[in-house]
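Quick board copy: two proteins, each given as sequence then C-alpha cells.
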Amino acid sequence: TRHLLIVGASAAGRATLDLIRQRGVRVSVVGFLDGDRTLWGTALDGVQVIGGVDQLTRAVDRCHVSEIVVTLGDGAERAWLAQLALCLERGIAIRRGSDVYEELLHRVPVVHADSSHLLLSVSTAARQRAVSRVGARALDLVGAIVGLLALAALTPLVAVAIWLDSGRPVFFRQRRVGCGGATFELIKFRTMTQEAEADGVPRWAGRRDPRVTAVGRVLRKARLDELPNILNVIRGEMALVGPRPERPAFVDRLERDVPLYHARHVVPPGLTGWAQVNCPYGDSVEGALTKLEYDLYYVTHRSVYFDLWILIRTIETVLALRGR
C-alpha cells in the first residue's frame, strides 16, 4: 500500500480523497497540508490536516510518503514550488488532483481543475490533431458509406412505422452548434409529436417525456433516431465520433452556467461520443456538466484507437437498447 499526501484541503482536495475511497485505490492517505492555519490540527473526513508548506518535507519523511497529490487553485502552487522540488529530488511522485480524477473516472474535472492548465491541454490537443485532419476525414467517409447502406435499408421500415404512429414528417431538422461555434441543420428521424414545442420554447427531452411518440421511444432506445446524422457526416458538418452537437439556445445558457463549455467546440461534433457511451442524455445544467467532463477528456485524448473503441461501445449500447 502506497502512502499518499494531499496538498490542499479545499473542496478539490476532499473530492480527491472521496474519489480515492470510492474507487478502492490501494493507497493510504496520510494527511492534508494546507496554507490555511485555521485548519491545522483538524480532521477533515477522518484525515488530519498536518500543517502548512514548512511541514511538507517533514511529513514526507515521517509518514514514508511515496506520492503527493497537489489540489491547490490557480497559481497557488508558487509558495510550495521549492518544497515540492525537494520532494521531487527524493524520488517522490507528484501529480495534480485533476490527473487522479481523469485516471479513475476518464473525465476532466471541470469544477476543480486548474482552468489555465486545462485550456492549454485542450489547445495543445487541438493543434496536434489538426495535422491528421485529412486522415480523420477519410475515416469518417469510410464509416459514413457503411452507415449510408444501413440508413438506406432501414429508412423504408422506420418511415412506415413513424407515419402509421404519428403521421408526417418522417425526418426532423434542427439547428445545432458545430465546430468553431458554426451552426448547421441536423437531420434525424422524428421521435416527438408535431406539437412538441408549439409555444416555441426549447426544452430538453426528459425521462418518460410525454412528447415522445411510441415509435420514437423505440428509436431512441436503439439510438436509431440519430442514424440520419450520417448525411451530416458526409456533408462535413459532423464526424463519426465527437461531442454531440447541442441546440443554440441551450449552448447560450450552458456557456453562461458551465465553465469552459466553449472548449468542446474545438473539434467537430460526432454521431456518437465518449459522453454518449458513458452517461445518459443530459436534461439539465448538471447533466450537461457531466457530459462536458467526458467531452473534454475525449478532446484531450483523441486518437484513431480511441474513436474505434467508442464506436465498439456504441454498437454495444445500440444492441443493449441503452439509449433514451
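And the next:
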Amino acid sequence: MAWFRKDKKPLKAQDKRDLPSDVFDKCQACGEILYRERLAQNLNVCPTCGHHLRIGAEAYLSILIDSGTFTEMDAGLRASDPLEFRDLKLYADRIAAAEAKGTNEALISGTGELEGIAVAVAVMDFGYIGGSMGSVVGEKITRAAHAALKQKIPLIIVSASGGARMQEGIYSLMQMAKSSTVLARLHEAGIPFVSVLTHPTTGGVTASYAMLGDVNIAEPEALIGFAGPRVIEETIKQDLPKGFQRAEFLLEHGMVDRVVDRRELKETIALILRHQYAGWTD
C-alpha cells in the first residue's frame, strides 16, 4: 500500500526533528544531513555536493600513509609559554584546554610509506588552537625535513592553519625562516617536497613552508592566502574577485599546481613521486 512505499530521500536541514549528534553531520555547503558512518567511508567528502568537511591530522595520516607503516617522531615536544602571554585568558590555559581534547600539538610528524614509497610526513591539525604555528610546530617541521634529508626520502606536509601563533610572538615568527631554510636544503639536494594545502591555510604558514613545495596541491575550495579577504578589502577599498583566495582561483593564477579531491589525494601524490621522481622509488 502507498504508506509502505516511501521515497528514499536524503534528510534536509529543515527537517523538524532531533538528530543525534553522534549519528549525523550536516554539510556546511549544501545543508544535507549525512550519516556520519557513510561520510567517514567517503573520507568526509559530502556525497551530494562534493564539499570537503574538515578532518584532523590523524585522519589525513590514515588516508595517506599505508597501514602499519607510520612511526611518529618528536611526540614528546610540548608548547611552552616563554612570554607569559595573556589576552582573554592565559596562554598556558589555552594549551591545557587544547591538550585536554587529546592532541599534544598542532602538528603530527613521522615517517612511513605511501603506496610503498618511503616518505617523511608532517600533518597540521586545525583543532589545536586553530592549527597555529608555534615554536613546536616549526621545530617538528624542521626535524621532519632533516629526516627526509638524512634518509633521502620525499617530504610531504599537509597544512591547515590560521597562521603564526600570536601568543609566542617573535618565537613563532622565527619558525617561518627556520622551516624555509631547511626546505631550501632539501631543494638543493634534489629531494622532493610535496605540499598539500587544505582549508584553511593562511597567515605565516602560507608565507613560509606551505607554498614552497616542488608541487603544491590544494583540496577543492580551500581558503589559501596570507591576510583574509575582509582585511584586504578594507585595506585596498575595493571588492575582491569572486572566489578570491580559493584553491580554484589560485590554480587559475598559477599559485598552486593541482586541485585534487581528497579521495584521490594518495593516488595523486604517489603518481607524482613515481613519475617525476622515479629514482626515489627504486
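Board note added afterward: The mean pLDDT is 91.
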